[in-house]
Amino acid sequence: MVPSMSGSFRFIPPPWPESRAWANDLEDQLVKHAGELGFRPSHATKGDLELVHQGRRQIVYLNRKRLVSQVIAVIVAPWSPVDELCGVPGVTFKGGYHHSSNMRTFPKRLNGGRDEIHYGYSVECADQTSFARLLDTI
Q1: Among 36, 34, 44, which Cα is nearest to 65's?
Q2: In whole angstroms, what separates CA 85 from the centre of its chain?
Protein backbone atom coordinates (compact mmCIF):
# COMPACT_ATOMS: atom_id res chain seq x y z
CA MET A 1 0.00 0.00 0.00
CA VAL A 2 1.37 3.41 -0.99
CA PRO A 3 1.11 6.01 1.77
CA SER A 4 -0.43 9.42 1.24
CA MET A 5 2.10 11.94 -0.02
CA SER A 6 0.99 14.81 2.17
CA GLY A 7 3.24 17.60 3.31
CA SER A 8 5.68 19.69 1.38
CA PHE A 9 9.10 18.94 0.00
CA ARG A 10 11.49 20.66 -2.37
CA PHE A 11 13.77 19.41 -5.08
CA ILE A 12 17.35 19.90 -6.12
CA PRO A 13 19.13 22.01 -3.52
CA PRO A 14 22.40 23.66 -4.57
CA PRO A 15 25.63 21.64 -4.10
CA TRP A 16 28.16 22.25 -1.36
CA PRO A 17 31.58 23.71 -2.02
CA GLU A 18 34.11 21.07 -3.14
CA SER A 19 36.48 21.76 -0.20
CA ARG A 20 34.25 20.10 2.41
CA ALA A 21 35.83 17.81 5.02
CA TRP A 22 34.00 14.54 5.77
CA ALA A 23 33.34 12.80 9.07
CA ASN A 24 35.48 9.72 8.46
CA ASP A 25 37.34 7.81 5.74
CA LEU A 26 34.32 5.71 4.78
CA GLU A 27 32.19 8.80 4.27
CA ASP A 28 34.96 10.40 2.20
CA GLN A 29 35.16 7.30 -0.02
CA LEU A 30 31.37 7.12 -0.43
CA VAL A 31 31.19 10.80 -1.40
CA LYS A 32 33.90 10.16 -4.02
CA HIS A 33 32.00 7.14 -5.41
CA ALA A 34 28.79 9.15 -5.47
CA GLY A 35 30.58 12.00 -7.27
CA GLU A 36 31.76 9.61 -9.99
CA LEU A 37 28.08 8.78 -10.58
CA GLY A 38 26.96 12.41 -10.67
CA PHE A 39 25.75 12.77 -7.07
CA ARG A 40 27.01 15.82 -5.17
CA PRO A 41 26.64 16.61 -1.46
CA SER A 42 24.34 19.53 -0.84
CA HIS A 43 23.50 19.51 2.88
CA ALA A 44 24.80 17.75 5.98
CA THR A 45 23.84 17.48 9.61
CA LYS A 46 25.17 15.24 12.37
CA GLY A 47 22.69 12.57 11.28
CA ASP A 48 22.33 12.77 7.51
CA LEU A 49 24.25 13.73 4.37
CA GLU A 50 22.15 14.79 1.39
CA LEU A 51 23.40 13.66 -2.04
CA VAL A 52 21.81 15.18 -5.16
CA HIS A 53 22.01 14.08 -8.79
CA GLN A 54 21.13 17.22 -10.77
CA GLY A 55 20.65 15.50 -14.14
CA ARG A 56 18.36 12.72 -12.93
CA ARG A 57 16.74 14.89 -10.28
CA GLN A 58 17.32 12.26 -7.60
CA ILE A 59 18.14 12.73 -3.93
CA VAL A 60 19.34 10.19 -1.36
CA TYR A 61 20.64 10.57 2.17
CA LEU A 62 23.55 8.80 3.83
CA ASN A 63 22.80 7.95 7.45
CA ARG A 64 25.94 9.42 9.06
CA LYS A 65 25.19 7.89 12.47
CA ARG A 66 25.37 4.40 10.96
CA LEU A 67 28.61 5.24 9.11
CA VAL A 68 30.34 5.57 12.47
CA SER A 69 29.91 1.79 12.92
CA GLN A 70 30.90 1.18 9.25
CA VAL A 71 27.31 0.45 8.11
CA ILE A 72 26.38 1.99 4.76
CA ALA A 73 22.72 2.95 5.22
CA VAL A 74 21.14 4.96 2.41
CA ILE A 75 17.75 6.61 2.80
CA VAL A 76 15.74 6.69 -0.43
CA ALA A 77 12.50 8.53 -1.17
CA PRO A 78 9.29 6.81 -0.07
CA TRP A 79 8.16 6.49 -3.71
CA SER A 80 11.31 4.56 -4.63
CA PRO A 81 10.88 1.05 -6.08
CA VAL A 82 12.26 -0.76 -3.02
CA ASP A 83 11.72 -4.23 -4.55
CA GLU A 84 13.84 -3.24 -7.55
CA LEU A 85 16.53 -1.66 -5.34
CA CYS A 86 16.73 -4.81 -3.21
CA GLY A 87 17.43 -6.73 -6.42
CA VAL A 88 20.77 -4.93 -6.56
CA PRO A 89 23.45 -7.36 -5.29
CA GLY A 90 24.53 -6.42 -1.76
CA VAL A 91 21.51 -4.18 -1.02
CA THR A 92 19.07 -5.17 1.74
CA PHE A 93 15.90 -3.65 3.17
CA LYS A 94 14.76 -4.45 6.70
CA GLY A 95 11.31 -2.88 6.24
CA GLY A 96 9.59 0.19 7.60
CA TYR A 97 10.32 3.87 7.30
CA HIS A 98 13.28 5.93 8.50
CA HIS A 99 12.23 9.28 9.97
CA SER A 100 14.43 12.36 10.30
CA SER A 101 13.75 16.07 10.34
CA ASN A 102 17.05 16.51 8.47
CA MET A 103 15.79 14.92 5.25
CA ARG A 104 14.45 18.27 4.09
CA THR A 105 13.54 17.29 0.52
CA PHE A 106 11.44 14.23 1.37
CA PRO A 107 7.73 14.42 2.20
CA LYS A 108 6.44 14.42 5.77
CA ARG A 109 4.03 12.19 7.65
CA LEU A 110 2.93 11.66 11.22
CA ASN A 111 5.00 9.14 13.14
CA GLY A 112 3.35 8.93 16.52
CA GLY A 113 3.98 12.55 17.48
CA ARG A 114 2.03 15.76 17.07
CA ASP A 115 4.01 17.06 14.12
CA GLU A 116 4.80 15.55 10.76
CA ILE A 117 8.39 14.48 10.08
CA HIS A 118 10.32 13.73 6.89
CA TYR A 119 10.55 10.04 6.00
CA GLY A 120 11.96 7.56 3.50
CA TYR A 121 13.13 3.95 3.23
CA SER A 122 16.47 2.90 4.67
CA VAL A 123 18.40 0.34 2.66
CA GLU A 124 21.78 -1.08 3.63
CA CYS A 125 24.68 -1.68 1.28
CA ALA A 126 27.10 -4.51 2.04
CA ASP A 127 30.08 -2.58 0.66
CA GLN A 128 31.11 0.37 -1.49
CA THR A 129 30.51 -1.58 -4.70
CA SER A 130 26.87 -2.26 -3.79
CA PHE A 131 26.54 1.42 -2.78
CA ALA A 132 27.71 2.43 -6.26
CA ARG A 133 25.32 -0.07 -7.87
CA LEU A 134 22.45 1.31 -5.78
CA LEU A 135 23.16 4.90 -6.86
CA ASP A 136 23.44 3.77 -10.47
CA THR A 137 20.01 2.08 -10.21
CA ILE A 138 18.18 5.01 -8.58
Answers
A1: 44
A2: 13
pLDDT tens by residue, 4-60: 444 444 455 555 555 455 567 899 999 999 999 999 998 888 889 999 998 888 999
Burial of 113 (0-12, 13-18, 19+ CB in 10 A): exposed
Contact status, residue 131 vs residue 29, Cβ threshold 8 Å: no
Cα–Cα distance measured from residue 70 to residue 47, given in angstroms and rounded to the nearest whole number:
14
Strands 72-76, 116-125: pairing is antiparallel
The per-residue b/e assignment along 48-71, b for 16 or more CB within 10 angstroms, e otherwise, is bbbbbbeeeebbbbbbbebbeeee
The single-letter DSSP state of residue 105 is T
Instruction: Give the pTM.
Output: 0.82
Share the mean pLDDT of the chain: 85
Closest to 105 measured CA to CA, from 1, 23, 14, 3: 14
